[in-house]
Write a structure and sequence with these properties.
This protein is an all-alpha fold. The chain has helices spanning 2-6, 14-18, 27-44, 50-68, 75-92, 100-115, 125-138, 142-155, 160-176, 182-193, 198-201, 204-219, 227-242, 247-260, 263-276, 282-295, 300-313, 322-335. It is elongated, with a radius of gyration of 29 Å.
């Protein structure tokens, strides 16, 4: 579009075009052609060249977007202005560029076009919303970014721009660690893994997200009759089937089975965790306590034998909070003898 509107296809380098001085009558036309060529290169450039080329494009395009504001005398010039502003948003808010001042210029240009009734941006509504989320994140306005994203998740859950927004938001959250509630972590993570097969969810690409979803769901203490709770149980059991020896997965599996009252399954998991953990560590003590607790519901004598052996080796039972928990359980089982 910009190429058709701005000139012929004569072979000239970007550097030659940018070398033309502002006093030259062809300066503006040269800047426009340079911007078009830079954007075309941006679309195909190697990863290592993105930053340099992107910044060069933004520096040229931001001035042109401002200039476009005064050139709205034809349908072609209005359309050109809208396209250039959208392109400026795309490049300036790329994760390797992050030029928020330039992005603000583009947002204003688009807003003015729509406010003045000159150009409808309905087709680009969700794309612009995605760029606005990035702008808020880069500006550290995390509350606004979160609000905008979750409205997209509710209103347009299957749209590709919603998926892109969710992925970008999640990546920045895991890097920046700004505050997200457990509920927000659960909802966003669940959205990101939804629609994927069990094998894909358990793959390295999605495993870290799935673990955070499972952990958040477990901490939320969802009602066991809720669909969400059933999803968490299924998710954790699925992850365990693929990663039966990964400690983080084992811990989640053991905790969920304990909450569900599945004493035999829970005992098996806690026993495996204890065997794989460093003796006397917090994880080992947690496993010892929960193993004994699970056994106490199916075989009290076995549970007592485990605790007697533990007491013989560790008369202080261990560090808190599990030391006190182990002692209390041991005393209770002894009292029942």
């Amino acid at each position: 579009l910009l190429f058709q509107a701005e000139g012929d296809n004569s072979q000239v380098s970007v550097d030659d075009l940018l070398a033309i001085l502002p006093s030259d009558p062809s300066f503006e036309q040269s800047q426009r052609k340079a911007a078009r060529l830079l954007y075309e290169q941006w679309l195909t450039v190697d990863e290592e060249e993105l930053r340099e080329l992107g910044n060069k494009y933004v520096s040229v395009a931001v001035a042109l977007v401002r200039e476009d504001q005064s050139q709205k005398d034809s349908k072609q010039s209005i359309q050109r202005s809208a396209v250039r502003a959208l392109r400026l948003l795309e490049v300036s808010l790329h994760k390797k560029i992050k030029r928020v001042v330039a992005a603000k210029v583009a947002f204003k240009a688009l807003s003015d076009l729509e406010t003045d009734g000159l150009y409808s941006l309905d087709t680009f509504h969700l794309e612009i919303k995605y760029r606005a989320i990035l702008y808020s994140l880069y500006s550290q306005d995390y509350a606004q970014a979160t609000s905008s994203l979750f409205s997209m998740l509710v209103d347009f859950p299957t749209n590709s721009w919603t998926q892109t927004s969710a992925q970008s938001f999640w990546q920045l959250w895991t890097n920046e660690q700004f505050t997200l509630s457990l509920r927000e972590q659960f909802v966003l993570g669940r959205h990101l893994i939804s629609g994927h097969s069990d094998a894909e969810i358990a793959s390295p690409k999605l495993l870290s997200i799935a673990l955070l979803v499972a952990n958040a769901g477990l901490k939320l203490q969802l009602n066991q009759t809720d669909n969400e709770a059933n999803e968490i149980v299924l998710l954790i059991r699925t992850l365990h089937s693929f990663h039966p020896r990964v400690e983080r997965v084992l811990l989640l599996a053991a905790r969920i089975e304990s909450e569900l009252g599945e004493s035999i399954r829970a005992a098996t998991h806690w026993k495996n965790i204890a065997a794989a953990s460093t003796v006397a560590s917090s994880t080992w003590l947690e496993a010892k306590y929960n193993l004994s607790l699970a056994l106490s519901k199916t075989n009290k004598q076995h549970a007592l034998d485990v605790l007697d052996q533990h007491f013989a080796l560790y008369p202080e039972y261990g560090v808190e909070p599990y030391g006190s928990l182990l002692k209390t359980l041991h005393d209770a089982l002894r009292a029942e003898q």
